[in-house]
Specification:
Elements lengths: L8 E4 L5 H12 L3 E6 L2 H12 L6 E5 L5 H15 L4 E4 L14 H29 L2 E5 L12 H20 L6 E7 L5 H14 L3 H9 L10 H12 L10 E4 L8
Parallel strand pairs: 1-2, 1-4, 2-3, 4-5, 5-6, 6-7
Helix pairs in contact: 1-8, 3-4, 4-5, 6-7
């Protein structure tokens, strides 16, 4: 299948590691130019060096604080300066802290809103003039909590589902410009984020991470955690020329973990 991704220009948030980096890797292999984004330059430099060896696409990076409007505006400008336009936008951000409603202060709620929802809104708004030029693709990375809330992750449960409402609404508003927008939620994919959550949960339960993993694997029909590249390949299809009719939808890549219909 021809994904028609050669010479496409992709802006990928939170892409120095984890799922964002895995998506960047797949797009570079397909010949896309990729803007890596993160808070720590040393991680971005390492990711750029690794990815640049993989394909024909150009790989650059920008250090960005996604909670700051001026940083997002500068990021979009730099992407356009480097590549000429933006064809693909991957919204992604580190997950908010774990905890219950009683654990969270106004500061927690505000920080999570700014990082996990407002950053998506701002980046879409700033990128839209360029995405409209050729009928762009947007994918918002969320969580399996968009289908089934996760105990102890109230911030994620709240703001990830808000992303779904945003994308569903925009799928209608942006359709006349042939912009397709979808939401993808990872299940238990083997990333740094999942390792952190497993550490927190295991500590609360007073068991080892290995014991916790064995418990969690019982809930995954495929019997294992997913690999970042498995998630990335699906996102790559959604932003590719092979996808011409899927928009406004929410998908899970979770090995069958979530049982909701």
């Amino acid at each position: 299948m021809d994904f028609q991704l050669e010479n496409k220009n992709a802006l990928i948030l939170a892409s120095s590691q984890g799922l964002g980096k895995a998506i960047a890797e797949e797009l570079v292999k397909e010949g896309s130019n990729v803007m890596l984004v993160g808070r720590y330059e040393e991680k971005l430099v390492k990711a750029q060096e690794e990815l640049q060896k993989l394909g024909l696409g150009k790989v650059v990076y920008t250090v960005t604080d996604l909670t700051k409007l001026e940083d997002i505006q500068a990021l979009v400008k730099k992407t356009v300066d480097e590549f000429g336009s933006i064809d693909i936008l991957i919204n992604n951000a580190g997950g908010p802290p774990a905890g219950t409603f009683a654990d969270m202060s106004d500061e927690h709620w505000q920080q999570s809103f700014e990082l996990n929802l407002l950053s998506y809104i701002r980046t879409i708004r700033e990128s839209l003039p360029y995405l409209k030029q050729k009928g762009g693709r947007i994918v918002n990375i969320a969580s399996s909590s968009i289908k089934e809330p996760i105990q102890g992750l109230i911030l994620s449960n709240t703001f990830r589902t808000a992303i779904v409402g945003l994308a569903k609404t925009l799928s209608v508003e942006l359709a006349p410009d042939n912009i397709l927008i979808n939401t993808v939620g990872p299940g238990r994919i083997a990333t740094e984020r999942i390792q952190y959550l497993d550490e927190v949960t295991a500590e609360k339960k007073g068991i080892t991470q290995e014991q916790l993993s064995q418990q969690l694997l019982k809930n995954i029909p495929l019997g294992r955690y997913g690999e970042p590249e498995e998630f990335a390949k699906f996102v790559t299809f959604l932003v590719s020329g092979a996808n011409t009719y899927l928009t406004g939808q929410s998908y899970l890549v979770d090995g069958g973990m979530v049982k909701s219909i």
